[in-house]
Write a structure and sequence with these properties.
Blueprint lengths: L2 E5 L2 E4 L4 E8 L8 E6 L6 E6 L6 E3 L7 E6 L4 E6 L8 E7 L4 E2 L3 E6 L1
Parallel strand pairs: 2-11
Antiparallel strand pairs: 1-3, 3-8, 4-5, 4-9, 5-6, 7-8, 9-10, 9-11
């Protein structure tokens, strides 16, 4: 059974940091491209960051580039999103996505106060 579960969200002040984790099971994580998406209030879901299998290649939305870092730990079947210099406009529900299989997590709330 495939499981994709986010953790690490919460409330933080502007300028602060959070690290999201996404733990997975039920598929061969090391072979998967992994992504983080978010849904901001009133907006469509958008891709935030992507990491290739093996971790050699990453890609970021322009709005988070140089502030967010995606990484993966294949032995732990886990992908991370380090979020620094957070802004109120980063407030969203963040989703983990296993691209190859189309597996979504349930999402986790991140709220950045001004």
């Amino acid at each position: 059974q495939v499981q994709v579960k986010e953790s690490g969200g919460g409330l933080v002040q502007a300028g602060g940091s959070l690290r999201l984790s996404c733990t997975t099971s039920g598929f061969t994580f090391a072979n998967y491209v992994m992504r983080w998406y978010r849904e901001r209030p009133g907006k469509e879901r958008e891709m935030v960051a992507s990491i290739s299998y093996g971790g050699e290649s990453t890609d970021y939305a322009a709005s988070v580039k140089d502030r967010f870092t995606i990484s993966r730990d294949d032995p732990k079947n886990t992908v991370y999103l380090q979020m620094n210099s957070l802004k109120p406009e980063d407030t969203a529900v963040y989703f983990c996505y296993a691209w190859n299989g189309g597996y979504w997590g349930q999402g986790i709330q991140v709220t950045v106060s001004s």
